[in-house]
Amino acid sequence: xxxxxxxxxxxxxxxxxxxxxxxxxxxxxxxxxxxxxxxxxxxxxxxxxxxxxxxxxxxxxxxxxxxxxxxxxxxxxxxxxxxxxxxxxxxxxxxxxxxxxxxxxxxxxxxxxxxxxxxxxxxxxxxxxxxxxxxxxxxxxxxxxxxxxxxxxxxxxxxxxxxxxxxxxxxxxxxxxxxxxxxxxxxxxxxxxxxxxxxxxxx
Length: 203
Description:
Elements: H1 7-12, H2 21-29, H3 33-52, H4 58-75, H5 85-104, H6 123-126, H7 131-138, H8 143-154, H9 159-166, H10 170-202
């Protein structure tokens, strides 16, 4: 998969550039505990925030992150230094989160529709929210909608890729994305309206 940055990624994740990443990665390749600890601490919040989009709770997201970080350490020798590390890390973490969900949950219920409809992107509403608010709203989506929405809109996977990852038809992925966007717009309108009322009451 070729990583494609999205608007939501730039909104959700802003990271420090102070980490001496090449040295830390090399230390992890040599299985140095100090380097592994540095990588864990530097990417903990980043990784947990990725997993939160696929989990039902923060506790489950932390379990997903633990699984994903072990996979990162096991696969770090395959990382190509010519490619952005965060993109590679995100790919490993997303796939680990999906694997965790499929192992521990009942099969997701996906809705097939004859035609997927497009109601437009909710990005204009998302831009008004802080990162924690975006995550809170996305987590309110039904699991099947949330999974497809996160994979496509946030993490940049195509519908054929999503279909392969989840074991569903490509049309089913498109249909659930359309339903997710519809539901998300409803949630965002409700969220922003409630926030406005709360701010007025506070003042």
